[in-house]
Each structure stands twice: as C-alpha cells, then as structure tokens.
TrEMBL record:
<dbReference type="InterPro" id="IPR018062">
    <property type="entry name" value="HTH_AraC-typ_CS"/>
</dbReference>
<dbReference type="InterPro" id="IPR050204">
    <property type="entry name" value="AraC_XylS_family_regulators"/>
</dbReference>
<keyword id="KW-0805">Transcription regulation</keyword>
<feature type="domain" description="HTH araC/xylS-type">
    <location>
        <begin position="189"/>
        <end position="291"/>
    </location>
</feature>
<dbReference type="InterPro" id="IPR018060">
    <property type="entry name" value="HTH_AraC"/>
</dbReference>
<protein>
    <submittedName>
        <fullName>Helix-turn-helix transcriptional regulator</fullName>
    </submittedName>
</protein>
<keyword id="KW-0804">Transcription</keyword>
<dbReference type="Pfam" id="PF12833">
    <property type="entry name" value="HTH_18"/>
</dbReference>
<dbReference type="InterPro" id="IPR009057">
    <property type="entry name" value="Homeodomain-like_sf"/>
</dbReference>
<keyword id="KW-0238">DNA-binding</keyword>
Length: 294
C-alpha cells in the first residue's frame, strides 16, 4: 500500500507518517502516525471531508470548533466538512490512529444518513470489542483484500461504530420495517435474488457499488438485506462462487500460474487467493491443483 512521510495526504494539522489501507469506491481508509516537532497548538485547519478517527496509541489534546478534549488510544471522533481542528502534544511522544474518510454521497445512501450528515458531530471511546474489531479490520486490509470485500467490511464496521457511539443498534429500522409489512420481506427476497443473479453471472471484477447500482439499491442497504435474507454476507457468497470457479480452473491441464488465476477471479493477489481458498476447502491452491489436475 502507498506510504509517505511529511504532510498527511488529507490535510492533517501536523506532520505525519501515513499508510493507505484501501480505497473502495467512496471510502478511503488509512493509518497515520503523528510526528511531534513541538508541543504547542498547531494552526487550526478546516476539515474538507467526513472523517472517522479511531485512536491506536499515544495521547494528545485536540480542539474541534473551539472545544478542547483529550484523545488517547481509546478515542473515536467524527468530524465534518467545515469543522476546525487543531492538535497539541504537551505530553511528548506521538500518536497513531486509523482514519476513514467517507464521501457524502456514500453516507447519503445509508438509512442512518442523518446521523452522519446532519446531526452534531460526535465523539466517544471504543470498548475492547470494538477496538479489536478495528485492529482486525486493519490487519485484513494490510494482508490484502479486493475492493468489493473492503467496501462491505467498511460499511459493516461503520454500522457497528455508529451503534456503539449513539447507542442505536444496527439494523433497528430494518427490523421494524420487516416486522410491519410482509411486502417488505418479499421485496427484500427479490432484491437478494437479483443480487445472486448478478453475482452468478459476473467475471468477479464488479465492485460492490456497481452491483448495488445494477440491482437498484445502495451498497449499505443491499449488504444488510442480503445478509438478513440469505444468512450470508455478499462477500462470503461471492467468495463461495469464486472458489468454485477457481477449482474448475485448477482442474485444467496446463492451467495458468496462480498469480494469473488470482487476477482473473478478482483477488487482491496470490496470497489473498491462497487464504480464501484454504479457508473454504482446507487446502491451498497449489495442493488442490495437484489433486484435481488430470
């Protein structure tokens, strides 16, 4: 993944080392380690995007729209375009955090759009479970995921994060709608079936956003409905289809190298292909090729 040192690529208020984790359509995920050059307040800088910042290590003070607070490894903060932020490091040492930047168009498609776009900014702290989920997500991104899986995982994490900070359980609105009207449940089943049709006929290069547009839904809504109707995430279902296609390819005599198989079926790289196939069938692709090839 791209890395850098100097100015943060997203207008951070102090120098930093940064590492991009992934950029599925409409969401940018990256890690930042702040470099402390002095302990005084930085110049306030206006935010230009919707950002979710999750602390990983260190401690510093932040001032957002004139309100000063302490940030540490447990902190989570949402900022919006136009918010002014400055930071200070009076305690010495740097800090590190994970940042998710989400396009307003992506947020507007979510059923919880008002909480992201219009309500006052929120801040809080993560518990042990959410912090572990955050760190496991980063680890998966660093190992390598394709943009489709990145997008779905990020939407699910945003669900969980918003539910933790606001106290509203993810899926509450959807649960009520399904309970009220049988027609809604039937519509959800049709949507899930349509998504299965698109997934079954794809060359696995389509992104989550493209599949959502094909079936006439937002990525977030499609992901939630598909999980509820089928009991499987879109990523898991897509991976089952991909693994079956890979097994067919591995059974061919004089088949292409594994790195080409990975590219053909939309995996991030050969390591990602190996990990997914082993998780599904218990053997790595090289072993399967020896077992299946005529």
């Amino acid at each position: 993944m791209p890395e850098g040192i100097g100015s943060d690529p997203r207008r951070r208020t102090s120098p930093a080392r940064w590492r991009v984790l992934g950029h599925p359509q409409g969401i940018l995920a990256y890690q930042v380690r702040c470099i402390v050059e002095h302990h005084d307040w930085s110049e306030p800088a206006a935010e230009t995007t919707h950002k979710v910042m999750l602390g990983r290590s260190g401690v510093y003070r932040r001032r957002v729209n004139g309100r000063t607070a302490l940030s540490d490894a447990t902190a989570v903060l949402l900022t919006r375009p136009g918010d002014e932020m400055a930071v200070a490091h009076p305690f010495g040492g740097g800090d590190s955090y994970t940042c998710l930047e989400v396009d307003p168009e992506v947020l507007a498609e979510r059923p919880d759009a008002a909480r992201w776009l219009h309500e006052a900014g929120w801040e809080g702290s993560t518990d042990e479970s959410l912090d572990l989920a955050h760190r496991l997500l980063v680890a998966e991104f660093r190992r390598g995921l394709d943009p489709f899986e990145m997008g779905e995982r990020l939407h699910r994490f945003l669900d969980r994060l918003l539910g933790h900070v606001t106290g509203v359980r993810p899926g509450t609105d959807l649960d009520r709608a399904v309970g009220r009207r049988a027609a809604t449940l039937a519509a959800h089943r049709r949507l899930a079936d349509r998504a299965r049709e698109v997934l079954a006929g794809t060359d696995f290069s389509l992104t989550l956003d493209e599949i959502a547009r094909e079936v006439g839904a937002s990525p977030h809504h499609l992901s939630r409905v598909f999980q509820r109707v089928t009991g499987s995430s879109l990523t898991a279902y897509r991976n089952r289809l991909r693994v079956r296609a890979v097994l067919d390819a591995l059974a061919e005599a004089d088949g292409p190298p594994l790195r080409e198989v990975a590219t053909q079926y939309g995996f991030a790289d050969q390591a990602h292909l190996t990990r997914v196939v082993r998780d599904h069938v218990g053997h790595p692709p090289a072993r399967l090729r020896a077992l299946l090839a005529a």
